[in-house]
Each structure stands twice: as structure tokens, then as C-alpha cells.
Amino acid sequence: MKRLLVKKAINCAFILVCFCLVSCAASLSQDYQRGEQAFKNEYYDEAIEYLTRYLKKAPEDSDAHLKLGLAFLKKGDLREAVDQFKESVNLNPENSEARTLIKESIFAEANRFFSEGKNDIGMRYLTAYLTINSDDVETHILLAKEFIKMGSTRNAISSLNKAVELDPKNPEVVELLDYFSDGFH
User: Fold this and answer.
1) 125 vs 143: CA distance, rounded Å
2) How far apart are alpha carbons 72 and 66 in whole angstroms?
3) Within 10 A of 150 (CB to CB), how many other CB atoms are there?
4) What pLDDT digit, counting tens, does each position of 61-73 carry?
5) CA triplet 21, 25, 30: central angle to 5 degrees?
């Protein structure tokens, strides 16, 4: 009889522990799903809240860091976005899709600022991207072109030099080298 009671107690405890684990996992999953949904609905503050809560419990989730970074980026908080992007890349350096999404998102925001005539802000976005991927030739080329438009020859040459170092045969790099060798016209 005692053995049966002990066995039932152990089974009840096991069921209770399983229930708690499932309940916690469901709550954790809900925060992530709510964060994703809020992002899709363009409620970036809400997305940030849910994803931050989720990441407190699951800090190793590189995709959640990526999504949180995108929410910060859309909200206009570049510094927080870059921090989350870096964490995402550090946790999963082989995720080329994440790297591409990060680059496309930052470039889209930079180009939006360029089209609005807010070149200094656009340049900040491109420069911030280089803190994530300093060897991105396309970013150095775009920076060089934007510096040329802004009349900042020294900075344009600096960006071009980095692009030349990374990929001297890139057609856009060659075009920019020709531009500078022909006397800046």
C-alpha cells in the first residue's frame, strides 16, 4: 500500500513538473509569436517588448536577436539594432540569410534617408553596417559614392582604398579609381 502511494506521489509530481515545463515553454513561445505578430503589424514598441522578454529566457536564439534588431531598426534606434544584429551573427555566424537580411534592411533605411536628403543619417547607417561586416565591398563603394556627392573627397578616397584592398577587380571599384585618376569630374 505504501509503495502504491509513493508511486502515485511520484507520478503526480512528474505530471506537475511536466505541466510546469509545458506551461513555461508555451509562455516563452507566446512571447516570441506575439513579438513576430507585432512586428508584422508594424507595432515596433510592442514587438521589442515581447522579443526582449523572450530573449531574457532564451538568450541563445539568434533568430530572435535578428527580429529584435529589425524592430529596433524600424523604430529608428540604430545603436540597439546593430547590437542585436551583432549578437545574432555571433550566435550563428554561418547564417548567410540573416546576414543578407541585416544588410538589405540597413541599406533600405540608408537609401530612404539618402532619398530624403538626410545624407548624414544615411551615412551613419552604412557606417554602422561596417561594424557588423567590415569587409563588405558594396558598403565601401556606396560610402565612397555618397562621400563624393557630399564633396568629402578625403573620406571618399578612404572608403575607396578599403574597397580596393578587398576587391581591386570589382567593376565599380575600377570605375571609382578612374573617376579619381581623371581629376574628379
Assistant:
1) 10
2) 10
3) 13
4) 999 999 999 999 9
5) 150
